[in-house]
Amino acid sequence: MYINTTGxxxxxxxxxxxxxxxxxxxxxxxxxxxSAHGALRKxxxxxxxxxxxxxxxxxxxxxxxxxxxxxxxxxxxxxxLRSDLEFLALGAYFAELVEAxxxxxxxxxxxxxxxxxxxxxxxxxxxxxxxxxxAFELRLMASTGFMPHIGCCNICGAENPPRSYLDxxxxxxxxxxxxxxxxxxxxxxxxxxxRYIISCDSKKLFSFTLGNEARRELNLxxxxxxxxxxxxxxxxxxxxxxIRI
Length: 245
Known about the structure:
By secondary structure, this protein is an alpha+beta fold. The chain is built from seven helices and nine strands, in the order E-E-E-E-E-H-H-H-H-E-E-E-E-H-H-H. Helix 2 packs antiparallel against helix 3 (about 110-125) and helix 2 packs antiparallel against helix 7 (about 235-245). The radius of gyration is 20 Å and the shape is elongated.
């Protein structure tokens, strides 16, 4: 059986002498493991479309429950990422996150657009990584069933406390009057940004601004919340932090 789909390469692994095994997030078939025969050969027609973070139109063959790439046409290579080590590392982190939460053969209406929008914003310099990373992390968690409940203090009900604390494991906030400074601290501007991220139109995900300290708070809270709920380490995040030192 042949299918035509669009797909983003989340991971590439060399296989034998000249081929690759790809993890691909497709538009209508979810996450698939795909063989790309001859992708490592010199002058291969599929070399570019089988790179990490390449987005392409693909023709796939399913035979005995195994997918093989037969044809592909590049749609977007996100060239802006490939000339900046930090941007490429952040893009790889996004890919590793999506691979962790996506289901095999089970399509999601939100994951692929979210990833493409983040990669495009990063590649084109629409926003800095300090905006794109926490927005991606929080929206990813919200879209996969881990939405934080941050509408008000979970103890007294205060909606806009000047300072609040996010319980990373519980996903709730408490105001400074009800909390002895445990959890990730959020100023009112950082809290409002977090609320915006999880509820806004997906096309306007990065349309917010924050001061330096509020951005720092949002980054710590978003990353901490994601790691607490996915309960694992990400090698790409470790690498990203290593090159930022």
